[in-house]
Structures are given as structure tokens and as C-alpha cells.
Amino acid sequence: MISASTSRVSVQSNARTIALTMFILGAGLVFLTGFAPSTTLHNAAHDSRHTLSFPCH
């Protein structure tokens, strides 16, 4: 039988893992598109960052 405290720790650990994974994927997406050799891909990422008020330069 799983106690409530064990279940809560498991959920918190799972949430941290998911949050860290999403952060790494998001940062990778921003940096990979920012330094992409394709001008179209770079400009699309650049414009999206400005739209979201994210400083990029």
C-alpha cells in the first residue's frame, strides 16, 4: 500500500523531471533556431522572440 506522503513525493519528483525536460527542450529550440544556418528559420525564431518580448540581442 502506498501512503499519501510517498505518493506526494513521487508526484513532486515526476513534476520536477517533466519541468526540467521541458526547460531543456525549450532552451534547445531557442538556441538551435537562433543559430540555424537557414535564414528563414533564424528570422522566424527571431521575430517570434521579439513578439514574446524575449530579448535576443
Report what the structure shows.
It is a single chain. The chain is an all-alpha fold and 57 residues long. The protein contains two helices and no strands. It is elongated.
Topology (SSEs and partners):
Elements: H1 4-34, H2 39-51
List key phrases describing it.
57 residues, mainly alpha, elongated
Structural class call reads mainly alpha
Beta-strand percentage range: under 5%
Q: Could you name the ranges where pLDDT drops below 50 across 5 or more consecutive residues?
A: none
By oligomeric state, this entry counts as: single chain
Largest sheet: none
CA distance, first residue to last residue:
54 Å
| Helix percentage | over 70%
Shape: elongated
Mean pLDDT: 75
Number of helices: 2
Tally of DSSP β-strands: 0
Q: Indicate the radius of gyration in whole angstroms.
A: 18 Å
Order of H and E elements: HH
Keywords: Membrane, Transmembrane, Transmembrane helix
Pfam family, one: CbtB
Transmembrane segments: 17-36
Protein name: CbtB-domain containing protein
What's this, in brief?
The chain has helices at residues 4-34, 39-51.
